[in-house]
Design goal:
single chain
Length: 251
């Protein structure tokens, strides 16, 4: 499901309420350094027809127009959410766009949160890290606890290191949300000990302020994937709940 606008919605989000979406990537394409088997935007290879990225000026105009029209119409916005067709931090103007968003949010919807859904691969970069520290909800993804398992579920391009991502997330000192997809696929099962136990150790190491555990909700590019029920996911993460971690579970 490609987003064909820089600003879209608001849509009803399972996790964030009334969410105004931000797409910093091509309007008719997809750019991501992951090619996740469950991505609702489809495979990367199917989104290469458009590679143009919105500029900061174009983004400012689009966001201000949308916020103004929503405010005039009395439409509630709980979160201004950077997601879009791929990894939002890959836009070279990402940090500037965060500053623009915070300024416009304060003017039009001061009660709204600013959220970023990211695969955390660029959190080591100082400009990205500093920008993420400014938003209300830096939501960082780790689906798999090892590089070999990430290669199955996330299919990263180039070099990818779970340890490097975890080390970069330690810099947040717990001030972020960890997001993890639970599913079953050929060669990958979130409930298996080789996935679940080391993933829980990563949660204990990072001690995020919240963990978002969710499962498949829309059509996926790979067929045959199996979802978990909320009750199943709760049972799997019960040891962390018992230890006092705040975990949001969405089916």
């Amino acid at each position: 499901m490609m987003r064909e606008e820089i600003v879209f919605g608001p849509i009803r989000s399972r996790r964030l309420g009334s969410s105004l979406g931000i797409n910093l990537l091509p309007e008719k394409g997809k750019i991501c350094n992951f090619d996740c088997i469950y991505c609702e935007c489809g495979w990367n290879k199917d989104g290469r027809g458009d590679t143009s990225l919105p500029t900061a000026d174009l983004f400012r105009s689009a966001l201000e127009a949308k916020l103004a029209s929503c405010k005039e119409a009395g439409i509630p916005i709980d979160s201004i959410t950077f997601s879009g067709d791929g990894e939002p931090t890959l836009n070279p103007d990402f940090a500037l766009m965060i500053d623009i968003t915070l300024s416009l949010r304060d003017r039009y919807y001061p009660g709204a949160k600013v959220s970023v859904l990211s695969n955390a691969t660029t959190a080591w970069r100082e400009d990205v890290f500093e920008a993420l520290c400014k938003v209300d909800n830096p939501i960082m993804k780790i689906d798999a606890p090892t590089d070999a398992l990430a290669a199955i579920i996330n299919r990263p391009s180039g070099s990818y290191s779970v340890e490097k991502v975890v080390a970069s997330l330690e810099r947040f000192k717990g001030g972020f949300v960890l997001q993890t997809m639970f599913l079953r696929a050929p060669g990958f099962d979130s409930s298996s000990p080789q996935v679940l136990l080391p993933w829980m150790d990563i949660v204990r190491r990072l001690r995020p302020r919240e963990v978002m555990v969710y499962t498949i909700d829309r059509e996926t590019p790979m067929s045959g994937l199996q979802k978990f029920t909320p009750a199943q996911m709760q049972a799997l993460v019960q040891p962390l709940l018992d230890e006092g971690f705040k975990i949001q579970i969405k089916g």
